[in-house]
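ESCALATION

Customer reports they have been waiting on this structure for their group meeting. Please prioritize. Original submission:
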Amino acid sequence: MSSFLNNAERIFDVARQSSEPEDLTIRLNPEGGIHIVAGPDYSYTSSDTTYRVRRGQGIVEVQGQAGAQTCLLRTKQVARCWMTDRPMYLVA
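Update from on-call: job pushed to the front of the queue and completed.
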């Protein structure tokens, strides 16, 4: 598996663990630098490997681009159960 797709899967796994709705862009430049930009900015330059992370409305998505390679990993988040095994009320 290519490092491009391997990195996308690792980013996707971390993004699925968070419940915070947010967008961010991760850029890896050829010199090894990593730039993380919060927000929906997704400008792409051909010399960078870029991953866009989107979370919100039950969706987690990682979109990657590196030269001619592209990938899209997407899933719906599992709804978290707010009900527990004990009642949230008292009977008097």
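Sent to customer with the following note: The CA atoms of residues 4 and 66 lie 7 Å apart.
Escalation resolved.
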